[in-house]
Amino acid sequence: MLYKCYVGLFLLMFKVAASIENGFVVNGNFELGGGAEFSQNGFFRLTNSSTFGVGRAFYSQPLNFKNSSNGSSVSFSTTFVFAFVLDEEHLPGHGMTFMIAPSKNLTGASASQHLGLFNHKNNGDPSNHVVAIELDTFQNSEFKDINGNHVGIDVNSLESVSSAPAGYFDNENGEFKSIVLSSGEPIQAWVEYDAPETQLNVTLAPIHKSKPSLPLLSLNIDISPIILEQMYVGFSSSTGQLVQSHYVLGWSFQLDGKAPELDLSKLSFFTGKEQSKRKGRNPLVVGLSITGVVLLIIATISILIILWRRKKAEFTEILEDWEVQYGSHRFSYKELFEATKGFSEREFLGKGGFGKVYKGVLPGSNVQVAVKRISHNSKQGMKEFVAEIGTTGQLRHPNLVRVLGYCRGEKELILVYDYMPNGSLDRFLYSKVGVILNWNQRFKIIKDVALALTYLHEEWAEVIIHRDIKASNVLLDGELNAKLGDFGLARCSKHEQDLQTTHVAGTLGYIAPELARSGKPTPSTDVYAFGAFCLEVACGRRPVEQKTSAKEMILVDWVYSFWMEGKILSTMDPKLDREWKAEEAELVLKLGLLCSHGVAEGRPRMSQVLMYLKGQAVLPENLNAHVKAQEGRGESENNAILCYSSPSLTITNSLISVGR
């Protein structure tokens, strides 16, 4: 929640100035939000060394950015001095923006690579009406960042329309000189917009240098269609797993004129050596005798050795050189131990085929996460698995559970995911949770999963084959939006290449016949599992019910038999009490059968499935004949699944509670 801060005295580092028409030199008339705070020396600190933090500072009053007569934008100029102080224990991350925004309320904006400005849903939305200058210290491929130390001009999105490595052009010889944004040294920035020329310039320089005559970035852009008449100006910043303190040391702004100069002589006290909050807090030894200090040190060392030995016995954390490139996805064991209250049974959410899942709250940021502990006794494939975490950790889709990172030990791997408050879908289908999902909710869940699979198969840079699609791996957020989770079995492959494997993985009833025979997963085997999933959600029963008659054991065969009798809607979940839309219900059931076709070539692609569900295409007219062509397949193909005896077959049971 934002809170107003009215400071009676001018901040020491700002040049004292009277009120300026259509502009200001910051003098306390501003608002701080998130983790932003005053330093004892008077300047802003937007974020500190807390992980996954967001901080903002706004000039408290809106400014008129457009001419009332013709609606065109006006010129503006701003200059500010900033410093990024790197925590000694971390790599730099993530950065800061100067922004022009229609509101001070940026509810829902995310930390990490979103810089406290947007989130994965609204990034790129023209209705944002935001123009920003990003000072970015982490290279993120999602936004096509050029490197991990750059400046960019952003319009409604964190994918910059123009960017350049951080630096400046020397006035004496025109030579480009680099600037390290995370050096801890104060850096001055100028952002100037010439409305008649529709020219936006961004310039940087160390504070001991005069303003370069040649800007770092110069972009021809008319911001009139982007901004509204009244806009707010300010800063946003964020940290992720990588942290640094983001400071604003001085700031002035002017509409239709040049921003007032800052009195840089007032900045001499800032040395770039500011310590984070958690440092310098140990005054306990002050006033103690030398003997007392020695005894205290000996006792402390002894206690630390005992605790270290105990913790080492539980978990020996491993970090090898090759993992450096995945630093943004690496959590420390200490963080996760604290987040889960020592992996307390009170935080236990469930247990799956791969390990136990705990609820956690990341220290410092209060972000809720799900933490999964996986045992492993071999280094075989660990490098590839961590590389996969690095890949899937970059996936950003509203219907995918984000893999936030990992921690690796000698005999254990810990994965960190987004926390889903409503748990897994199978809880609502099979457990007595007191809530029955209505048809509209179920139909949307099916479409959500189809969107996620289309993204994985056809829209991401690599083909991601999930390999374990089922109701217990579909997680529901607070608004019952479905998100496909558990990438523990996922594998990446380049487009148009087969994925070779010698290990059949999946869950009974979702495994395509050819996967059981060959052990080779493909996007089509995911489609088969999705077909079983559609029938599961619509019928409210598992794909294989072993405690029932042979006729009803296999869900797909049971639904198919009712279809042949012209009574396919009789298979719908009786808990729905016949409250469904007949056209949608019939579509889902028939689509489930089509996706469960016994021959891979007979199944649609997920993009086609999505078109059927959205009503953008209709099922084939000869669907009956198409599906009937595989009649009689049931016994032989089901035997291929139920009686497959290879020792490499892995079958996972539904997870308890959350299904991760």
Can you tell me about this structure?
Its EC number is 2.7.11.1. This is non-specific serine/threonine protein kinase. Residues 1-19 form the signal peptide. It is a single-pass type I membrane protein. One of its GO terms (molecular function) is protein serine/threonine kinase activity. This protein is α+β, with helices and mostly antiparallel strands. It folds into three domains: 20-267, Jelly Rolls, CATH 2.60.120; 315-418, 2-Layer Sandwich (Phosphorylase Kinase, domain 1), CATH 3.30.200; 425-651, Orthogonal Bundle (Transferase(Phosphotransferase), domain 1), CATH 1.10.510.10. Helices cover 22% and strands 23% of the residues. The protein contains 13 helices and 30 strands. The strands form seven sheets. Strands 1, 3, 6, 7, 9, 10, 11, 12 and 18 form a nine-stranded antiparallel beta sheet that branches. Strands 2, 4, 5, 8, 15, 16, 17 and 19 form an eight-stranded antiparallel beta sheet that branches. A five-stranded antiparallel beta sheet has the order 20-21-22-24-23, sandwiched between helices. A hairpin with a 5-residue loop joins strand 4 (37-38) and strand 5. Helix 5 runs antiparallel to helix 11 (606-614), helix 7 runs antiparallel to helix 10 (582-595) and helix 9 (555-564) packs across helix 10. The protein is globular. The protein starts with a strand and ends in a 9-residue tail after the last strand.
